[in-house]
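[step 3/7] fold_predict: job queued, chain A
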Amino acid sequence: MAQDRTLQLPDGSYFDLWEMEQEYDTELHVDEKHPAASDENDGSPGQPLKTINAAAARAYPGTRIWIHGGVYRECVRPARGGEGIHKMISYEAYGDGEVLIKASVEVKQFRKSEGWNLRRFSPEGFKEEGSAVIWEIKLNPEDFKGYNPFCAVNILHDRLFIEYDKTDMTTYLNRRGMVFCDGKPLYQVSLFNQLADHPGSYWVEANGQTVHFRLWDDGDPKEHTIELTNREQCFAPEIPFLSYIKVKGLTCAHGATGAPVPQRGALSCFRGHHWIIEDCTIDWSNAVGIDIGNECWHHTFSEEQVIGSVIIRRCRIFNAGVCGIAGLFAKNILMEDNLIEGTGWQRMELSWEAGGIKVHDCTGSLIRRNIFTKTHGADHLWMDMGNENNRITQNLFLDGINQREAIFIECSRDGINLIDHNIFWNIEGRFDPKQIPAEPGSSGWYKMEETSVVNGYAVYGEGTDHIHMVNNFIGKCRSAGYYAKTVAFRIAWKRGGTSRDAKIWNNIFYDCKEAAVKFPTEHNESEGNLYLNMPGGYLRVLYPAPTACLDLQAWQEFYGLDLEGQEGRLVVDLDTEKYTLEFSKAEAQKGFPGRHSGKISYLENLADIRKVKTRYITGSDFFGNTAEVDTCLPGPFGKLLENQVISIDPRRL
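[step 4/7] structure written:
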């Protein structure tokens, strides 16, 4: 049987799909809603256990724990791992309703807040108290034994990399505890009087024992479900290095995790390896959704220690405050068919551990068929230091909100990182528009270098060599599709960065506002790309100064690049909610394309796109269809049809 070519890594090897079909020796049932449920039972279907932890204490290699639908307010603590890929321990939803593990407690005792002043000074003078109705909750010590997130601030440990002069520290110093009303989080304010300005908010007293809150409609909390987070995690071993564990079909919500580092997720492998996490949902984790690596660079580390070999499949990660999936030093990982949405709402990107996925020193890994969307401020994917022989393929990177780049590959010197057959759309950039210098008249013509204020890139390489971007579709970047810096004086593994050997092959670039490609130097390659709806000077070599801002003809003439390149005008509509894409003909522009007539063929019909030489044998297109060996269309699709709405959801669910 032919190998699945989407499993092929840049060095030609295939990702090791190590998982095996399991035959379990023992099955235990947990059903918190069963009238006879008790942790003293035998765990049979008729005599189920009450808590998941009771089953975890009895589970040995070869055990499957069936968890029936219900709400489980506990942190599951596996007592042991499996003994190999053939004999794992599995925690699985039984299928008779959602298994919801909540790191929160429901509270029902409230009273009106007293003794606090809602008035505050402003330039307009004192504002009288209005109609705001504030309630308070005295925390029950029995609910917060061992961990009170309302006493702990978000970031406690390693603060070395925080750039205080660039950062509003409010969110870093907020409390970790969250308050939910009918499943929706309230907004944390820093002072009691700010509750008057923020319907749907809460404030924590200094000692962390009393929480004051205001509902959106100033209603009575007794008419709603009010929950307060009271545990750090939902599923996490207390013993490090437990391995060969499977978690399937569980929902983990309300984890009161702290900002990384350390990386401690609502669902945590706690430095174990050979975990399978599939069909799970993570919802509203204060900081990290899932952690799969070494947790922290301050831990001791031995060469024999295995970190990684984790599979995350068909999961949905919603609203992780800082990072969806964190993997410090994790190698040989497979992340496929996941949806990662709404990451980064805490806005801690300048602590440098934020992203839909954040990995360090990642090698031999495959990230395919995932959807990243609505990431706030941070990257969809950040690969930090020492990454090589990784493949990123068939993903959607959509709607980066105030986002500098969709993919950031940092300080990776050796080995290829292949980014192929992905779709990028709407990277807004993260910058202050007021900092863009005014250039009236001809004053901007004579500058030697870019101002470097505007950003918004599909892929940003910082001191990284060997980034290969092949057959992607890249649309609506505020700055450029590809951008890199050399970072020569960041010495890692005895040398600085060069950002050489980038290969930008057979991509489609659409409506990028400054440029399609910004090479730091000419020691990179660009060939077979299609450029649509681009501004002037959209192909650039930044150094040595002065920067070269070119069109396709000059790019070919002066640098010998993109000799098979094409340019033109089309309309592309991408629906980021329905995951659909449509190409159509653009309206004719009178007098367009001007000087290109007779020199560069300027296409205006989808049928006019020419096939180009296949430059990287990936074997299949965005949909997994077998690709031609010798030639292909630019972009991720094997064929393009005009005025046809196509589904681009890549997941195999």
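[step 5/7] annotate
Residues 123-127 have pLDDT under 50 and may be disordered.
Residues 71 and 396 are 33 Å apart (CA to CA).
exit 0
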